[in-house]
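Can you please make up a whole protein chain along with its backbone structure tokens because I've never seen that pairing?
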Amino acid sequence: MTFRVRNVPSWVNRKVNRKGVLRFSGNSTWKGQPVVARIKVSLSGKDDVTGVRFDRMMQASYDVRGTRGRNRFVWGPQAGAITKRVNTVVDFRNDEARDVLVFRNTTPKNPVVHMQRFRVRNFGSNDIIRLKNLGITVRQRDLRRMGDGRFMIPGVDPSKMVVMNILN
């Protein structure tokens, strides 16, 4: 497999399941770990890997780059990014395939507390963002232009998640 992964803490397990999803999952000590890691994952078109799933881990940031094919990026019920300085970048790549980003953190008091500074790049007309924590599904037509050229998701604070550029 030719995917590239960098900066993964030792307490995080990673494996590729039979559906071709690269899964990162923290072990039993994940809650006591500092939130300083900046995980970088780059998928290659030569792989059978079609997606990335994060679960049981809070990190400072993620840098996830997909392939030119169909990709699925999932942040599970106990995963997220807690940061004030570094952006989490999800790059869908410039393609016609449907890419999906799912964020399903289930914090009861504030559902977006673990969704900080997410930036989505190359959002195409077939791509979808599903924020299960808020009950929102977003397509390109749902985005609203901000004054600085970025696009916001209705109902989501721009400091939590924005779309950097869209593809026609």
